[in-house]
């Protein structure tokens, strides 16, 4: 059928909030995603019905160099305050470029964008390493969101470098008190609220009734986040990222955050695929790849249609 004039492009470069450059990705059945060149930051992922699946704070003013509060911040080359750089490193505070000449990297997605971040002379003062960080954001034909990061050490001085990494994903949930996370039970975790002490998770699914800030170690490839009220399960698949960080600021901390509404903690949960505990070391010429794949599947517990264990075990 000849394309109708109103057909929207699968990939569109346009101006977002405050005139910041952003790329809109559109799937064949109505799904979409948006990524700002500022921060290489995904700020929207909508399903085929146009429902927004990621959380971005209503207090966010999109004013560089502050990082955008919500979506999927890229934490690189540092996670948290473990190091001498600013919290979570600098990748989320930098302007990325569209990679106009990407190395071959096959994909089945018809809607994707390749971004690249390389250090400026000034950046080298802060983190004295030369690297190429390629980020591909892709919308699967079924509406899945796929992020692939490739970091290559391009040091000419023969020096290796070490970095930590996280896709700091803010999931939109209807009510945090009705959310469960499956796949992290029985794991060890470092509790950022208890001086990063190591504990073992008891019980089965994670539920939430207070501030949580935990780095789960050696987390499985698949993690399920169940939103009971919405009858929706987010399935997070990760590769190259051994840890999973779970964070919700809850009420007290929310009130101290100027870019976060006092009651917004009820409608978000961060589950972050990360390499946090054991940073990654690359020799010159070596490249690391870290993948995140997000899907949202209907889950209706009452009819027992979706057993999270089945989701976690399915291919
Ligand atoms: O406010 P930021 O820098 O985006 O960090 C938010 C949170 O990010 C989480 O990943 C950390 O574990 C928390 O300790 C931190 O508070």
| Ligand catalogue | 6-O-phosphono-beta-D-glucopyranose
Domain count: the total is 1
Shape: globular
Assigned CATH class: Mainly Beta
Gyration radius (Cα, Å) is 19 Å
Enzyme class: isomerase
Family: Belongs to the glucose-6-phosphate 1-epimerase family.
Catalytic activity: alpha-D-glucose 6-phosphate = beta-D-glucose 6-phosphate
EC number: 5.1.3.15
Short synopsis of the structure:
The protein is mainly β and 315 residues long. 6% of the residues lie in helices and 40% in strands.
Word description of this protein:
This protein is mostly beta strands and 315 residues long. It has one domain: Distorted Sandwich (Beta-galactosidase, Chain A, domain 5), CATH 2.70.98. The protein is 6% helix and 40% strand. The protein contains three helices and 20 strands. The chain has helices at residues 121-126, 250-256, 308-313, and strands at residues 11-15, 21-26, 32-36, 41-46, 74-75, 97-98, 111-117, 131-139, 145-153, 161-167, 170-172, 179-182, 188-191, 197-200, 212-216, 222-227, 232-239, 243-248, 268-282, 287-298. Strands 5, 10, 11, 13, 14, 15, 18 and 19 form an eight-stranded antiparallel β-sheet that branches. The protein has an eight-stranded antiparallel β-sheet with strand order 6-7-8-9-20-17-16-12. The chain has a four-stranded antiparallel β-sheet with strand order 1-2-3-4, with no helix packed on it. It binds 6-O-phosphono-beta-D-glucopyranose. Residues 67, 80, 87-88, 168, 192, 213, 245, 247, 272 line the site of 6-O-phosphono-beta-D-glucopyranose. 6-O-phosphono-beta-D-glucopyranose binds at residues 67, 80, 87-88, 168, 192, 213, 245, 247, 272.
């Amino acid at each position: 059928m000849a394309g109708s004039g109103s057909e929207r492009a699968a990939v569109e470069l346009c101006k977002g909030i405050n005139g910041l450059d952003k790329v809109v990705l559109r799937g064949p059945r109505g799904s979409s995603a948006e990524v700002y060149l500022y921060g290489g930051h995904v700020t929207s992922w909508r399903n085929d019905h146009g429902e927004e699946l990621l959380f971005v704070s209503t207090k966010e003013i999109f004013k560089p160099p502050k990082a955008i509060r919500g979506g999927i911040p890229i934490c690189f080359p540092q996670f948290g305050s473990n190091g001498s750089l600013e919290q979570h490193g600098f990748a989320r505070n930098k302007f990325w470029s569209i990679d106009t000449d990407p190395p071959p990297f096959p994909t089945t997605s018809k809607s994707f964008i390749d971004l690249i971040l390389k250090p400026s002379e000034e950046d080298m003062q802060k983190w004295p390493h030369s690297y190429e960080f390629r980020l591909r954001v892709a919308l699967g034909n079924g509406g899945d969101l796929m992020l692939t990061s490739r970091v290559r050490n391009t040091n000419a001085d023969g020096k290796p470098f070490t970095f930590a990494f996280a896709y700091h994903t803010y999931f939109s949930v209807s009510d945090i008190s009705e959310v469960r996370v499956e796949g992290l039970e029985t794991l060890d975790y470092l509790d950022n609220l208890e001086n990063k002490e190591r504990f073992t998770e008891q019980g089965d699914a994670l539920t939430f009734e207070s501030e949580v800030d935990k780095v789960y170690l050696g987390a499985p490839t698949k993690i399920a986040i169940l939103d009971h009220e919405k009858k929706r399960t987010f399935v997070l698949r990760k590769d190259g990222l051994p840890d999973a960080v779970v964070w919700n600021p809850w009420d007290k901390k929310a009130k101290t955050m100027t870019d976060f509404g006092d009651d917004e903690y009820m409608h978000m949960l961060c589950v972050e695929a990360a390499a946090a505990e054991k940073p990654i070391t690359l020799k010159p010429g070596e490249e690391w790849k870290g993948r995140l794949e997000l899907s949202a599947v209907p889950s209706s517990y009452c009819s027992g249609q979706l057993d999270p264990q089945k989701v976690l075990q399915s291919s």
